[in-house]
Write a structure and sequence with these properties.
It is a single chain. The chain is mainly β. It is built from 4 helices and 68 strands. Strands 50, 52, 53, 54, 55 and 57 form a 6-stranded mixed sheet that branches. Strands 56, 58, 59, 60, 61 and 63 form a 6-stranded mixed sheet that branches. Strands 13, 14, 16, 17 and 18 form a 5-stranded antiparallel sheet that branches. β43 and β44 (about 475-480) form a beta hairpin. It starts with a helix and ends in a 5-residue tail after the last strand.
């Protein structure tokens, strides 16, 4: 109560102190805090001393929402102590009341900190592999950390620090923080790991190993366009020898490779080992140029590989002696024919055809030679027979359905030689159907479990030109190519292994069968796409948002505490206290504050978190209606009359509607009826208390001795006061006893007679003496007063003899 009186400084006093500072400079505070600044982990204890060397003061104290000491007189040190600090905005103030009524104040800086509940990394607005050169935003999500201004978010790629993020906003209470990092990955970043670390730099008073929480690493996959590895582009060989051409390239996804050379001789076989792609050619006889094209979904590159033979380069064709033919007949070449090397005079237009199954086709075979007997197309369908003295023949089929057809144009020269040119024909067919299924599984998938999707493509040709493309949503995720040479239609299955995460819940997968038939084929490529496969992913619940220090009103329920969880199937919440399940729908009483555990569970798993719940309620007095205490003894009213409420509140004492202070020891003047009032944000309370101060009896003023005559009556006064009222004439109450003695004296009879005679004789002698004097002085006298100021006031007094 004394503290309340001293803290109510007048505005005039404060302004006076401010003027002193302005006129005389900074006033040195008589207070010293030890330590001068504190950093406390949420829920830990703290203790700070406030001392003074001044002797010119009445007292000092701490003012705080928790741990305040009140005003203490005649002390030089007071200690602020809190066992479990949970007030984020607390500002303890130490004050001292000087004898000149000034009141200096020293505020203790308090940093209350809390490490985050979780730290995690995500990629905003993106999932799956990244693309080289594209900009992405990583985000570090830090949940429930304080204070924000002391937070440093550190980004790492591998073990290398790459960025720091600091904050200038002054926020003392826990917040959720997101720290961005913009990246533009290159191919060298494929497989890189990113981490973010939330670190609290709390200054020299804080922990020197800064409190730190680090995220799980984020592994990134980078897709990039193909790039050729270093190698020779020109190879020189001897005629008839074998040669290997290296067209190695790197890319992600792994690129497809195609070799093209329509005029090369020899047998060519392609070998692929990792990024090494080799074309082995046997029995090379002429110079040739090979085109190596490497393609993935991000780009395509081509380079030329030159093969130089150590003989003059020329086109080699097989020439045989002339064999007579008839139109439409098949030419049979003699087994003993001797080939010669010559330059072909034949030209096919177009030199290569790509035909949809069942469509028509037409190709011209022409020559500029005049030294020939005739020309002919030989084919299972559309052969022309031998045409004499012509320079052009046309191969035509209205409905091409022969998957293995190899039309051949030949010319018979006048010297009997026969030159041949074979037409490359690709007959293709789009699939009858394309569909997706999940192998050996049905129903929802479980996060982190591996599943195989299968794309089934029915009746497609040719297989070696097929590219199966997988998509998740609109984003390509994989390509499948085939090296088997199959001209006829086949059924093809393309697998895709997935391990879905919670972010994939509701994702759509599609597969697309695409025929890449080269530059002679249709543009765009013939394509058939499956119906989408929608997947449902079940995953363990996580608590995304929950206030770990929740304050609720009395009669609220645990179900009313706000939190956010993420889980599939939707999880259920169960609350526990001290290992026992509690009814989350039951109203909370004021005695229910404490530690609770919330457990979130679904079919996949469960998670839990500990929450400190504080039940707030209006104040209520615990106090008797009457309190008795002995005078000048210390009372225990602070224990006898208490208030129960949260937040805690202060008791104000009123007597006759005036606020009063209750001294530590009470006197009889402190008796009476008091009203105790208090309030917090939930309500107010009052109580009437009668204080009865007990004190020992005390006699009132009176005679302790009374003299009376024999046989006469007497009244003895034995008045006394005390609380409780004392018993008379020995004054006794529960506080003490007082005794008062009154003496009554009785007079003796004979003594009184003798005394009466003596008195009578003395009176007689006195009368005789007076008579004698009277006769002698009979006459008239002038009477002059002793006071000379009255001389003029003379009286003529006759003196006459009294007759007896």
């Amino acid at each position: 109560m004394e503290y309340q009186r001293t803290t109510m400084l007048s505005l005039q006093r404060m302004l006076g102190l401010l003027m002193l500072i302005l006129l005389h400079g900074v006033v040195t505070s008589p207070l010293e805090l030890n330590p001068p600044r504190v950093v406390v982990r949420y829920g830990d204890s703290v203790s700070v001393n406030c001392s003074t060397s001044s002797t010119d003061h009445e007292g000092m104290g701490w003012e705080a929402t928790y741990g305040g000491t009140g005003f203490e007189q005649d002390v030089n040190i007071v200690t602020w102590t809190v066992d479990n600090l949970t007030d984020w905005t607390i500002e303890p103030k130490c004050y001292i009341l000087l004898n000149d009524s000034n009141q200096p104040i020293e505020v203790l800086p308090v940093i209350l900190y809390k490490t985050p509940v979780s730290v995690s990394i995500s990629v905003l607005s993106h999932s799956g592999p990244m693309v080289e050169g594209t900009e992405y935003q990583l985000q570090c999500d830090i949940l429930n950390i304080a204070p924000q201004q002391n937070l440093v978010v550190k980004w790492y790629k591998g073990n290398e620090p790459i960025d720091n993020v600091t904050y200038s906003n002054i926020i003392k209470t826990p917040v959720d923080v997101s720290a961005p990092l913009m990246i533009s990955p290159s191919r060298d970043d494929d497989g890189a790991q990113y981490r973010c670390r939330a670190e609290l730099d709390l200054g020299p008073e804080g922990p020197q190993h800064h409190p730190t929480v680090t995220s799980e690493p984020l592994n990134i996959t980078v897709h990039y366009a193909p790039k050729f590895l270093p190698g020779n582009d020109t190879v020189v060989v001897s005629a008839g020898s074998d040669v290997s051409l290296d067209c190695s390239a790197e890319g992600n996804p792994p690129p497809e490779l195609k070799w093209t050379n329509n005029t090369a001789e020899g047998n060519a076989n392609e070998t692929i080992v990792g990024r090494l792609r080799t074309l082995s050619i046997s029995r090379v006889t002429a110079n040739a140029t090979y085109n190596c094209t490497v393609t993935n979904r991000l780009g395509s590159i081509t380079k030329q590989m030159h093969v130089l033979v150590e003989v003059p380069p020329q086109r080699h064709l097989t020439m045989f002696p002339t064999v007579p033919t008839t139109p439409g007949a098949t030419t049979t070449l003699p087994a003993a024919a001797k080939p010669k090397v010559v330059t072909s005079p034949l030209e096919l237009n177009p030199p290569r055809v790509v035909v949809r199954y069942g469509d028509s086709v037409s190709v011209n075979c022409s020559t500029s030679s005049t030294d020939h007997e005739g020309m002919v197309w030989e084919a299972t369908y559309g052969g022309t027979g031998f045409g004499q003295d012509v320079n052009i023949v046309t191969w035509t089929v209205d409905n091409l359905t022969d998957w293995t057809i190899e039309p051949t144009c030949y010319i018979i020269l006048n010297d009997g030689n026969q030159l041949i040119e074979v037409l490359p024909v690709i007959l293709y067919k789009t699939p009858d159907s394309v569909s997706i299924s999940v192998l050996s599984h049905s129903g929802p998938m479980v996060e982190g479990t591996e599943y195989q999707l299968q794309c089934d493509i029915q009746n497609i040709a040719p297989q070696q030109n097929l590219v199966v493309k997988w998509y998740k949503g609109n984003e390509p995720v994989d390509n499948v190519i085939y090296s088997n040479i199959s001209k006829t239609p086949v059924d093809v299955s393309a697998p895709l292994m997935i391990s879905p995460s919670r972010d994939d819940d509701g994702a759509q997968y599609r597969c697309r069968a695409e025929l890449d038939l080269g530059p002679e084929g249709p543009q765009p490529h013939p394509t058939v796409t499956s119906e989408p496969l929608n997947i449902t992913v079940h995953y363990k619940p996580v608590i995304e948002r929950l206030n770990l220090d929740s304050h609720v009103n009395e009669s609220s329920t645990l179900d009313m505490i706000l939190y956010t969880v993420n889980g599939n199937p939707p999880p259920n919440a169960v609350w526990y206290q001290e290992g026992r399940q509690v009814n989350a729908s039951a109203p909370l009483a004021r005695t229910d504050s404490g530690q609770y555990v919330i457990t979130i569970t679904n079919d996949i798993g469960s998670t839990n978190s500990t929450v400190h719940i504080t039940v707030e309620y209006a104040p209520k007095f615990t106090c008797p209606d009457q309190y008795r205490v002995k005078e000048n003894e210390n009372h225990n009213l602070s224990v006898t009359c208490t208030v129960d409420g949260y937040p805690s509140s202060k008791i104000t004492w009123l007597k006759d509607l005036q606020e009063v202070d209750i001294p530590q020891s009470l006197s009889r003047e402190n008796r009476g009826e008091y009203t105790l009032v208090t309030k917090n944000k939930h309500g107010h309370a009052s109580h009437t208390l009668v204080i009865d101060v007990l004190y020992a009896p005390e006699f009132l003023l009176g005679n302790d001795t009374v003299r009376v005559s024999s046989n006469s009556d007497v009244s003895l006064n034995c008045s006394a006061e005390g609380n409780p009222p004392p018993e008379i004439c020995t004054a006794t109450n529960r506080v003490g006893t007082a005794t008062r003695t009154t003496t009554v004296t009785m007079k003796d009879y004979y003594t009184n007679v003798i005394l009466g005679i003596i008195v009578g004789i003395l009176v007689s002698f006195a009368l005789i003496f007076i008579f004698y004097k009277w006769r002698k002085r009979q006459g008239h006298y002038k009477v002059i007063p002793n006071d000379t100021t009255e001389v003029n006031q003379l009286n003529d007094v006759p003196l006459m003899t009294l007759l007896g």
